């Protein structure tokens, strides 16, 4: 009984009660149906009795009609066929029906015994009618007296017996019904009593069985509610409550595990919050540094902007200067051209002078020749020619002097022409130089204008950079604000983590769970430790490798370097 | 003025010979003044075929035909273009009149015999017989030519033909 689960127990209990109810109702039903059957039989027997009496009367009428026919000579209108009279019709259908087969033996015997006298009666009637039709009234009377009357008497007797039998049956049924009614009453009383007893027993048992366990469970749940997760429910049952206790235990262990996890997590969160806080501080510092750097950048950019502006200004000035220089150079070019023209004129004049000098030279030459000839002649003339020789010498002297002067002039002219040529060349060169100067100045002007436009672009670029720096400044400010917020958030996070830890202290967990927690925390920290160990182990490994051999050492150091 | 003095001196002395000096290239040459008939400027002359290269042609000098030779070419010096100052000396050589083209005429100078030195001896293979001597005048030397010996008789005959 204890091994069953509650559902089955309840099924069993309510099944027993239902069975009792069913038994009771069956008893009531059976007895009441018996009573109603008895009543029905009484009514049926009543009906049967009156029917029999009607048939008796019909046959009495039939006999009276026959006697009237014999004795009075009245027409006989009744049937002579035993199957066509009222009784006959009913009787033969009844005898073939199921009803008859189920009839009691006494009644059935009596009903069977009815057939022969009834048939005899109607056959007798036919014989009487035959005798009467043959005119044998006496034979008819005799036959009537000797056959028909005894038959109808017998038939009446059987009818009476049937009626009596029916009355007996009714009486018997009435007695049966009374007996079964009393028995039913007793039975119903007994079953009700049993039912009450059973119900009380079941209620007691079930309440005792279930409530104790439920109370135990309630205690456990109260413990959980208080945060005590160290106690388990001790309930060794195989039913639903046992299952419930088991699940509750599972829940407790899960919860304590969860609490442990949460405690660990809250510690982690607290640590993380601390780290975030530290990081925020650093971030804040860096943001400040960034801001100051940005400020410096902005100042530098401003300086640059002013420099660029000055540059542009200078470029403009240079452009103007270049233009002036170009104008001047052009003027110089004109002057050079004029100079060239003047030099040409000088050159022309020199040439003319040279021509004249040529003429003078020619005259001097001729004079010289004449003088020489005169000298020759004078030499030939001897003493007489002396005076002439003197004159000739003077003439020759003059001629030579004029030739020398002409020569000097020629040289001077030549020199001046050469100088003019040289001057021409120089002027040409200077013209070229001026032209190239103009070109250069143009180029300079172009370059300067390019510089100017570049400076303009630079200025716009610097503007953009300035804007960007301003934006960056804004962003840095926002960053600073965010960092502050974040610092506040991390602080509150730390507080929350502390709160959480405090809250988690509410839970009391078994050593089992706390042990698990410690395992977990140590497991979490282990990797870091092992990492450190690995890092420490690396150096000695390398030292060992160095000791191993020179080649290895080279490779190792190279690798190391690459790693570095 | 010095030259004038020299001439005057020569004239007064009557002892020294007078020379007409001319230039060929860098050097100054002299011929006796009495050999010189006339000094004329360069003028066109008629070229004569199949004569030695130094014979340039013939000149019509106031009706008489005078052969002209280039002294540069005769002395195997480089040919020089003739210009306005080129001079032709009309000389009397062995009773013949010839024209000699020189670069320019310098002067008529008086040289005393003291001023004239003998021609220095070169090796025997070189012809120097047409040089009469070296006239010293101030710092420079004047090559005094013996004009009669410059031209060989065959050459003179050739000039006659011309």
TrEMBL record, chain A:
GO terms for molecular function: transmembrane signaling receptor activity. GO terms for cellular component: plasma membrane. Keywords: Coiled coil, Membrane, Methylation, Transducer, Transmembrane, Transmembrane helix. Residues 518-527 have a biased composition (Basic and acidic residues). One of its GO terms (biological process) is signal transduction. The chain crosses the membrane at residues 12-30, 187-206. Residues 518-564 are annotated as: Disordered. PANTHER family: METHYL-ACCEPTING CHEMOTAXIS PROTEIN I-RELATED, PROTEIN ICFG. This is HAMP domain-containing protein.
Automatic annotation (TrEMBL), chain B:
It comes from Candidatus Aquicultor primus. Pfam families: CheW. SUPFAM superfamilies: CheW-like. One of its GO terms (biological process) is signal transduction. It comes from the Bacteria. It is found in: Cytoplasm. This is Chemotaxis protein CheW. Residues 16-156 form the CheW-like domain. Keywords: Chemotaxis, Cytoplasm. Coiled coil: none annotated. SMART domains: CheW. GO terms for cellular component: cytosol. PANTHER family: CHEMOTAXIS PROTEIN CHEW, CHEMOTAXIS SENSOR HISTIDINE KINASE-RELATED.
């Amino acid at each position: 009984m204890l091994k069953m689960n509650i559902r089955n127990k309840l099924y069993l209990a309510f099944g027993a009660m239902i069975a009792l109810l069913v038994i009771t109702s069956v008893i009531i039903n059976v007895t009441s149906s018996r009573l109603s059957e008895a009543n029905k039989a009484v009514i049926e027997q009543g009906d049967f009795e009156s029917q029999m009496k009607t048939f008796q009367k019909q046959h009495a009428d039939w006999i009276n009609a026959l006697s009237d026919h014999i004795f009075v000579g009245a027409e006989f209108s009744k049937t002579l066929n035993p199957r066509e009279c009222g009784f006959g019709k009913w009787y033969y259908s009844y005898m073939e029906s199921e009803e008859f087969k189920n009839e009691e033996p006494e009644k059935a015997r009596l009903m069977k015994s009815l057939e022969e006298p009834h048939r005899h009666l109607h056959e007798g009637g036919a014989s009487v009618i035959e005798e009467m039709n043959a005119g044998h009234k006496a034979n008819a009377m005799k036959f009537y007296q000797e056959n028909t009357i005894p038959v109808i008497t017998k038939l009446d007797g059987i009818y009476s017996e049937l009626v009596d039998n029916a009355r007996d049956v009714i009486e018997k049924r009435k007695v049966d019904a009374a007996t079964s009614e009393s028995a039913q009453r007793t039975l119903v009383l007994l079953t009700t009593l049993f039912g009450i007893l059973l119900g009380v027993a079941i209620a007691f048992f079930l309440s005792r069985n279930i409530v104790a366990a439920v109370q135990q469970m309630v205690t456990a749940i109260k413990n959980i509610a208080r945060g005590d997760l160290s106690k388990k429910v001790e309930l060794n049952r195989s039913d639903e409550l046992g299952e419930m206790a088991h699940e509750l235990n599972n829940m407790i262990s899960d919860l304590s595990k969860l609490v442990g996890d949460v405690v660990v997590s809250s510690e982690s969160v607290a640590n993380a919050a601390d780290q975030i806080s530290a990081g925020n501080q650093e971030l804040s510092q860096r943001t400040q540094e960034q801001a100051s750097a940005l400020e410096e950048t902005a100042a530098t950019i401003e300086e640059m902007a002013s420099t660029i502006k000055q540059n542009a200004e200078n470029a403009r000035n240079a452009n103007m200067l270049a233009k002036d220089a170009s104008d001047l150079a052009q003027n110089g070019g004109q002057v050079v051209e004029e100079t060239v023209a003047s030099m040409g004129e000088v050159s022309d004049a020199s040439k003319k002078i040279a021509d004249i000098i040529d003429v003078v030279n020619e005259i001097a030459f001729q004079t010289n020749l004449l003088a020489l000839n005169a000298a020759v002649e004078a030499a030939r003339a001897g003493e007489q020619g002396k005076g002439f020789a003197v004159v000739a010498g003077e003439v020759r002297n003059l001629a030579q002097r004029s030739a020398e002067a002409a020569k000097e002039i020629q040289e001077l002219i030549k020199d001046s022409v050469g100088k003019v040529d040289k001057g021409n060349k120089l002027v040409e060169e200077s013209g070229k130089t001026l032209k190239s100067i103009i070109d250069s100045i143009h180029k300079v002007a172009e370059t300067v204008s390019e510089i100017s436009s570049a400076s303009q672009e630079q200025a716009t670029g610097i503007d953009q950079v300035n804007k960007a720096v301003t934006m960056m400044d804004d962003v840095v400010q926002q960053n600073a604000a965010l960092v502050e917020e974040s610092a506040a958030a991390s602080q509150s996070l730390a507080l929350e983590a502390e709160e959480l830890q405090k809250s988690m202290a509410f839970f009391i967990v078994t050593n089992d769970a706390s042990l698990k927690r410690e395992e977990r925390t140590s497991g979490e920290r282990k990797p870091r430790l092992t990492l450190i160990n690995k890092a420490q182990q690396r150096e000695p490994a390398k030292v060992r490798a160095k000791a191993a051999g020179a080649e290895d050492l080279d490779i190792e150091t190279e690798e190391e370097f690459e790693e570095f | 003025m010095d030259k004038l003095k020299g001439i005057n001196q020569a004239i007064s002395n009557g002892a020294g010979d007078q020379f007409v000096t001319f230039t060929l290239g860098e050097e100054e040459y002299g011929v006796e003044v009495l050999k010189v008939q006339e000094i004329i400027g360069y003028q066109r002359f008629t070229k004569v075929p199949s004569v030695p290269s130094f014979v340039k042609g013939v000149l019509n000098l106031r009706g008489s035909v005078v052969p002209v030779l280039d002294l540069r070419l005769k002395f195997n010096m480089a040919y020089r273009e003739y210009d306005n100052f080129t001079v032709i000396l009309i000389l009397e050589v062995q009773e013949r009149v010839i024209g000699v083209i020189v670069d320019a005429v310098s002067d008529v100078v008086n040289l005393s015999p003291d001023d004239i030195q003998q021609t220095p001896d070169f090796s025997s293979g070189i012809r120097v017989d047409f040089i009469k001597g070296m006239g010293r005048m101030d710092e420079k030397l004047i090559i005094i030519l013996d004009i009669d010996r410059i031209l060989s008789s065959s050459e003179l005959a050739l000039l006659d033909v011309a």
